[in-house]
């Protein structure tokens, strides 16, 4: 095992070693991490629903009736009436024909790529896509072609080059998880059309937050199922529960049920999670004030940060990265913030490109303007 120890040492020397902090409280803006009370600016609970009383009660009530485990895969006897109702609600909410639940977003992305493509096919991906999309393409055995971030002229060039391939699948983040910018999905669809390429959007960081009802980036950009046939979104971020889903046509969902190994060979998530998700979707649709307040906080954060000599990304979402560059300096700043009661994660390669290490600040509707004031005040003393 000496080689493993040497590799870990190299990671430490490069400022790339990762360590887990222990959360001793419910998810929220004010949490207890490693025994210390801190204000969190690094969670993905964008709407403050992970500890919502009504959602928790829905979970408890369902657990009382259906237990805490599903007992089996969906195709054996693990597919409960609550799973079924949740899939129907998600399909309706996103304007798709059907939806299919997965235990994680990672599994959902692997499932889509591996079930829909193979050796004769080509997958096109933005270079800043989430790791699960990249890994899904690699597992599928399709040829993976990556284009520079948001460079759709390069995407079109790649489509022209591979026009005689079998199936052509464009997979892109909706909201890019480390930069916070949004894909121009309307343009992707326009580029894809002449080459009969399918478009898939991973809306993990847009679902619940974007759109007039919170149905996500595709609702915001007014794109339907015919234009974007494959939608994936996670439930552990703005929705505040756990798992993920894929939504699309009847034939898409049936193909995934029949052929997607991550779906077929995985125990279904607890029915109580589906019950909690059903309640959360109702709240997301009803509580537009959460999205409105989040947008106010984003604008306020950017305004307050304008006085600091740091690089912000061009993001209009809850993800507001502060580019530092050096790995060691970024980690040092994150630790210094934590010592002062502010939890902001240091993001380093390979999660982001080399030389672009950053403090990934994320905002929640549960933040107050005073929280942002404190963060900016402390950053001024550290930068």
Write the layout of secondary structure elements.
Elements: H1 2-13, E1 30-33, E2 36-40, H2 53-66, H3 74-78, H4 81-94, E3 98-102, H5 105-116, E4 122-126, H6 131-140, E5 143-147, H7 152-161, E6 168-173, H8 185-192, E7 198-202, H9 217-220, E8 230-234, E9 244-248, H10 250-259, H11 261-264, H12 271-286, H13 288-305, E10 311-312, E11 319-325, H14 327-339, E12 342-343, E13 345-347, E14 357-362, H15 369-382
Parallel strand pairs: 2-12, 4-5, 4-6, 6-7, 7-8
Antiparallel strand pairs: 1-2, 3-9, 8-9, 10-11, 11-14, 13-14
Question: What does the model show?
Answer:
- There is one protein chain.
- With 383 residues, this protein is an alpha/beta fold.
- It has 2 domains: 124 residues, Aspartate Aminotransferase, domain 1 (Alpha-Beta Complex); 234 residues, Type I PLP-dependent aspartate aminotransferase-like (Major domain) (Aspartate Aminotransferase, domain 2).
- The protein contains 15 helices and 14 strands.
- Strands 3-9-8-7-6-4-5 form a 7-stranded mixed sheet, sandwiched between helices. It has a 4-stranded antiparallel sheet with strand order 10-11-14-13, covered by helices on one side.
- Helix 8 links the parallel strand 6 and strand 7.
- The chain starts with a helix and ends with a helix.
- The mean pLDDT is 96.
């Amino acid at each position: 095992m000496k080689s493993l120890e040497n590799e870990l040492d190299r990671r430490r020397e490069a400022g790339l070693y990762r360590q887990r902090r222990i959360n001793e409280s419910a998810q929220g803006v004010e949490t207890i991490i490693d025994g210390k009370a801190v204000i969190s600016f690094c969670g993905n609970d964008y709407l403050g629903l992970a500890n919502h009383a009504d959602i928790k009660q829905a979970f408890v009530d369902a657990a009382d009736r259906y237990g805490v485990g599903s007992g089996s895969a969906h195709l054996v006897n693990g597919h409960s009436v609550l799973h079924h109702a949740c899939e129907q609600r998600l399909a309706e909410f996103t304007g798709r024909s059907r939806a299919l639940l997965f235990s994680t977003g990672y599994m959902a992305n692997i499932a889509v790529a591996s079930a829909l493509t193979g050796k004769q096919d080509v997958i096109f991906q933005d270079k800043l896509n989430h790791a699960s999309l990249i890994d899904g393409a690699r597992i599928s055995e399709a040829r993976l072609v990556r284009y520079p971030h948001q460079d759709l002229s390069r995407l079109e060039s790649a489509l022209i080059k591979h026009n005689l391939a079998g199936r052509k699948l464009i997979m892109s983040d909706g909201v890019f998880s480390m930069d916070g910018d949004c894909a121009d999905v309307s343009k992707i669809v326009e580029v894809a059309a002449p080459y009969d390429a399918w478009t898939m959007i991973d809306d993990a960081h847009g679902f619940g937050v974007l759109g007039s009802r919170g149905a996500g980036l595709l609702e915001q950009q007014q794109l339907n199922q015919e234009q974007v046939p494959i939608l994936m979104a996670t439930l552990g971020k703005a929705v505040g529960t756990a798992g993920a889903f894929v939504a699309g046509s009847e034939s898409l969902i049936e193909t995934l049920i029949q052929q997607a190994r991550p779906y077929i060979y995985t125990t279904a998530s607890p029915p109580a999670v589906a019950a909690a998700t059903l309640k959360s979707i109702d709240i997301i649709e009803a509580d537009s004030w959460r999205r409105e307040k989040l947008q106010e906080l984003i604008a306020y954060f950017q305004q307050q940060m304008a006085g600091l000599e740091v690089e912000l990304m061009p993001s209009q979402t809850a993800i507001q990265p502060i580019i530092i560059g050096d790995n060691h300096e970024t980690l040092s700043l994150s630790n210094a913030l934590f010592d002062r009661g502010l939890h902001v994660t240091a993001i380093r390669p390979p999660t982001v490109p080399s030389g672009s290490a950053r403090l990934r600040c994320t905002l929640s509707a549960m933040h107050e303007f005073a929280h942002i004031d404190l963060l900016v005040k402390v950053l001024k003393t550290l930068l």
